[in-house]
Design a protein that fits this description.
Blueprint lengths: L10 E9 L7 H9 L9 E3 L2 E7 L8 H16 L4 E5 L11 H4 L10 E2 L2 H9 L2 H23 L6 H22 L10
Helix pairs in contact: 5-6
């Protein structure tokens, strides 16, 4: 597989819009199949050095936004739990699925620092009014808090859990800095 853009410090994962059938025949999905190890027949999740987020259904018809969002949320949880990986996110849903960046980009507000978002998504997110960012920001903090609670219930001696908890604490601090402009320590996991 050829990956000239891979981050040398971390394994890079190409994040692309997929279809639920895993027929990687066009666009970024075809690129993921040819260059990043996407598995034909697998529509979602980690596959080789790629990660598919469904934007089309089994019949290759565009999914409505409310059905794309859970796939994005699942990806964000996965990325937060794998701080050792670097995720190169494409403008999923904005090519063959036909959505605009303004439809999809807000789903990625609060993405972990190991996710490189497309410039068009970043520009859209930065252009959102404060109230919209606040709502999404609060949801991001809630998601992080729930993830920390789930991790706290698992054996804390597990190195993946410890690394994930450290990453979540760092990400929470970054989100708080973004919101408050100062460094607020995240509250300890219960």
């Amino acid at each position: 597989m050829k990956n000239s853009t891979r981050n040398q410090a971390k394994r890079s994962i190409f994040v692309f819009g997929s279809n639920e059938a895993g027929r990687h025949g066009k666009g970024a999905a075809l690129h993921a199949y040819r260059e990043w190890g996407a598995i034909y027949g697998q529509g979602e999740g980690l596959q080789g050095d790629s990660y598919g987020i469904p934007t089309k259904n089994m019949a290759i018809k565009t999914l409505p936004l409310h059905l794309i969002k859970p796939g994005v949320e699942q990806f964000l949880k996965f990325a937060a739990g794998h701080p050792d990986l670097h995720f190169e996110v494409t403008a999923i849903g904005c090519g063959l699925a036909g959505y605009k960046e303004s439809d999809i980009a807000p789903m990625f507000i609060g993405a972990p620092e190991n996710c490189a978002l497309p410039a068009s998504f970043v520009a859209h997110i930065e252009s959102l009014p404060g109230e919209a960012k606040e709502t999404i920001f609060e949801k991001s903090l809630d998601l992080i808090a729930r993830m920390r609670q789930a991790l706290a219930q698992v054996d804390p001696e597990n190195s993946l859990v410890s690394a994930s908890t450290d990453f979540i604490k760092a990400h929470t601090t970054t989100l708080n800095q973004h919101k408050y402009g100062t460094q607020h320590e995240p509250s300890p996991a219960p």
